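Good morning C.,

I know you're traveling, so I'll keep this short. The sequence:
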Amino acid sequence: MTRSSEPHWFKSSYSGGSGTECVECAYADSGTLIRDSKHEEGPVVQVGPTTWRIFVHALTLRGIG
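The tokens, ready to paste straight into the viewer:
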């Protein structure tokens, strides 16, 4: 099975319905990709796996994730 070169973007279940304040994420071999959902062709931030785990864990501790 071959992996698609295009990332599979997803939004948080906490995203509002208005679409004005949302980021999208996608998992890649080298880490997690993050972009502004309003600007799909705009810049993408990439963070490594350890950084992403720490970020998600911090959100979970604060009751956000």
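Safe travels,
E.
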